[in-house]
Amino acid sequence: MADDLIGKLDRLLKDRPWYELPRLLAGQRLIEMRNELRAKNLHDTEEPAEPRQEIPPSLDPTLVEGRTTDGTFNDLHFPKMGSVGCRFGRNFPLETVFPDTPNILVPNPRVVSRELMTREQFQPATILNLLAAAWIQFMVHDWFVHRRSTTEVVEIPKAPGDDWSDPSIRVRRVVPEAAPAGSTRPPAYANLNSHWWDASEIYGCDPAIAAKLRTKIGGKLRIEPTGQLPVDPDTGVSVTGFSDNWWIGLAMLHTLFTLEHNAICDLLAHQHNTWDDDQIFRKARLINTALMAKIHTIEWTPAIVPHPVIQQAMNVNWSGLAGEDLQDALKFLDDKELLGGIVGSHADHHSAPYSLTEEFVSVYRMHPLIPDDLAFHSLTTGGLLETLQLPEVSGRRTQAITARITMPDLFYSFGTSHPGAVTLHNYPRHLQNLTLDDGEHLDLAAVDILRDRERGVPRYNQFRRLLHKAPVKSFDELTDNPGWRKQIKEVYNGDLEKVDLMTGLFAEPLPPGFGFSETAFRVFLLMASRRLKSDRFFTDDYRPEIYTDFGLDYIKKNSMLTVLSRHFPHLAPALSGVKNAFHPWKVTSGPGTPP
Q: Which fold is adopted by the domain 41-575?
């Protein structure tokens, strides 16, 4: 009878989604899901694959002891793996990711944008502050960028009744890598960044840019005496590792972690007074990069997905069930990823050479986080300083903002403001009518839709199937908003299988404690672990001989809150009692305070 009862309970639990299970059972289900994804959802696109190499005894020790500018030599047996110019991989079998070229404009991406994405009223994500929106763009700039054609374009037709000022939206095509003769594979695309989590947005991926950023004194990066990043006189934008799509949120975080790098350099130089500029720089970069990865893993992610199981899962990813203190005492646990955590365990690429994937790029389309209007307040009084629209704090205009509003006031304003919710009808209207500094005129929501189709990312229902998740069977199941059901059905002419990935992800009902869809989360579940598990600087070489004892201790003891407090101590009243830097901060009392 007991066995029969257990069997019935097991069958009952199998029918329930993981996020409705008790915490321990939910954690176990996530591990099972991740193991299946690791086995079935990693696919290499390189042609030919890089052959394994033996590590030569004469290998330059600097290639072993620190990250390279272009990401080479992370895996010493496969030196090119994950480096600049390597192809994006796929999370799905290659035969399922060919572009649907005949239907690349079906339905018209501009219609999808106007009818389903347009922000009619700002929908805030009240569990977060605006730093969470700036942070994810800061991270994305480290991870990926595609090469765009200078000659070939896709023309998105102007929609009926459209107020678009031009006859069409001209979108520069993404350039595929040349395929070997006889290849039957779908197009694949190079990443112009390194695929590794190496803070290249701060340090650069190109040797010339990387050299331009350094002072060559004490390992430090260039920063002005005013505490601001230097500005390129030709572009009017800050000089940093990656400055595309520049706006005030990026300027703040690039400044903050440039200051953090330099502070780490001072501490290292004090402890190692015989080290030269390069030695200090390499160690400081390792420490700063790992601290950013830790912040993203155990602060940003639990902030945007505050489900208790996710919070535990992210801590397990970083330091395991044993926790950091016990992990130090019981080093043997590092052989057990679940107990000891991924960080400090043995590197493993699982079923394919390491790369970021096109599907990973797609699920990080979170532009609704960005507001159209930004209010800046005084940290001291809480009073309103000024209100600006997104174009006024973007591109070459950004420098003027940092010149007249202090960094403490900027961070305070972001910390006490909300980003937008990642949902339909909440796309920034300014990004739907965006004119870049070079004059390019785009509807970014339409471009987002087009890019997935162009790169062969499956549409929503097929995406779910390939992630081992049941497809939705009706428009009623797609969303719990009756008005949206009608709109989506009309835009996609009643064809559920044509619903684009981004549309489905934004429409999907969210489980409790989720800031974005559970479908997207499955890609994160796989790739968030992979970015750590494949990288020797987070696994085999996360050790004192590489980082120094000081470095490992520094990473353990620091967080986004300590970084903010170190460089902008005046923020202390706003941060008092705040447990996570991406949660809303305390509002300074005074007239004109933010809501």
A: Myeloperoxidase, subunit C (1.10.640)
